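in:
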């Protein structure tokens, strides 16, 4: 093993990770991590069970050219990868994986703790084969600790990390996000952690075990609440009772705890908090200055200072009925305007507001089009628009950092190429392994 693990990029090949190879053993829980590395040009080899990854059976579905259901989840997160099959619960399959590990730079897996160890494929065992291997594990609670062996779903991981807490009404049940998110956060952290370990490997030539806890990744989503005390909002979201208040105080004003921050507009919805207090009350002052200018609010509300409003509420000077009247006037004002009209003014006037985009809005976004975010791909006869680069190199570079996206592989599509290239197996040997169900 040399002290420098940098590799020469193949001549003319794009992608910052073009010289590097990744074994992606993840199921649906970690599929994004390998795809991010594939977009950077790494040769990502997805290792599926002989029957295919469970990611192929994840909703939503569309019909392919043959009229068969095609998982759009799979189309998105399997894109850019080569695909092979291998039964990792069989001795022959485990032996095959060890041969593959000898010639790769990264391995990413999302198995429950101890599964890889039981297969004889944990980091300590694989490191003996390839000391430079960066082994990335994505688990619900990490590979060790009191909760390591606990069962978890995306929802329970999201709950245990904290992001569900601010979504509840006072004293009521939290509301989940419609689409699973926790493992996506962890998968992105896994790709980032792999790169951090890679930078260290460039220095000393040694690999590492990158241990990703979904719970810890999800906790990052609570930072707006955790850090709020530093800007004067100690009870912004997590705390239930304002200081010396007789009842809970919702410092969003709109309010976030009652899910009143979604406003109907002419062509859909916008997200906007009538924020109060020292951290963000000034933005609501800007909103009401606009309403006053348009003759859309009463003189009383036009004079309110939303920075100091919490103290007036606590003292009983401003009650819920007044707040509700202020909300009604805001609702009537925004209802006659489009998302685009509101956002143009919000930018100009410094108002905290965001359009709630539909899938159609995103697909036809001029901003995304200008940045080339969506790329056309045909997957099993179905034309798709898939997300492309997730970042850009702003300064001129000799090599383009990202590569054009390729459609997700069919089951075992690259068995012949990969096992022949990396394991030196003949076509007859590969066919025999397939006949035995090993691949």
């Amino acid at each position: 093993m040399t002290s420098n693990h940098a590799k020469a990029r193949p001549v003319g090949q794009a992608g910052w990770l073009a010289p590097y190879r990744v074994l992606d053993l993840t199921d649906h829980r970690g599929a994004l991590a390998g795809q991010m590395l594939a977009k950077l040009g790494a040769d990502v080899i997805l290792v599926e069970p002989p029957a295919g990854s469970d990611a192929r059976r994840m909703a939503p579905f569309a019909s392919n050219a043959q009229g068969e259901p095609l998982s759009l989840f799979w189309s998105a997160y399997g894109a850019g990868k080569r695909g092979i099959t291998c039964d990792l619960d069989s001795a022959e399959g485990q032996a095959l994986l060890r041969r593959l590990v000898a010639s790769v730079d990264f391995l990413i897996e999302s198995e429950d703790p101890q599964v890889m160890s039981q297969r004889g494929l944990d980091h300590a065992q694989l490191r003996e084969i390839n000391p430079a291997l960066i082994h990335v594990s994505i688990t619900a609670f990490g590979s060790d600790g009191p909760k390591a062996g606990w069962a978890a779903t995306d929802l329970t991981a999201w709950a245990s990390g904290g992001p569900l807490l601010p979504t509840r009404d006072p004293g009521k049940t939290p509301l989940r996000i419609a689409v699973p998110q926790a493992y996506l956060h962890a998968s992105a952290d896994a790709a980032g952690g792999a790169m951090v370990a890679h930078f260290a490997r460039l220095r000393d030539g040694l690999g590492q075990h990158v241990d990703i806890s979904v719970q810890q990744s999800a906790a990052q989503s609570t930072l707006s609440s955790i850090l709020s005390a530093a800007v004067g909002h100690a009870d912004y979201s997590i705390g239930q009772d304002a200081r010396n208040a007789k009842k809970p105080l919702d410092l969003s004003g709109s309010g976030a705890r009652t899910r009143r921050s979604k406003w109907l507009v002419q062509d859909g919805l916008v997200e906007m908090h009538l924020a109060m207090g020292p951290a963000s009350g000034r933005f609501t002052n800007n909103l009401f200055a606009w309403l006053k200018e348009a003759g859309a609010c009463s003189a009383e509300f036009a004079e309110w200072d939303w920075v100091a409003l919490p103290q007036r509420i606590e003292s009983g000077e401003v009650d819920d009925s007044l707040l509700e009247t202020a909300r009604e006037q805001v609702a009537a004002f925004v209802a006659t305007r489009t998302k685009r009209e509101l956002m143009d003014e919000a930018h100009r006037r410094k108002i905290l507001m965001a359009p709630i985009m539909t899938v159609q809005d995103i697909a036809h976004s001029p901003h995304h089009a200008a940045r080339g975010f969506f790329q056309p791909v045909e997957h099993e006869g179905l034309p798709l628009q898939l997300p492309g680069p997730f970042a850009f190199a702003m300064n001129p570079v000799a090599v383009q950092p990202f590569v054009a996206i390729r459609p997700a592989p069919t089951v075992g599509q690259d068995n012949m190429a990969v096992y022949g290239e990396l394991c030196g197996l003949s076509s007859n040997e590969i066919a025999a392994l397939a006949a035995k169900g090993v691949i």
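note: Residues 280 and 393 are 33 Å apart (CA to CA).
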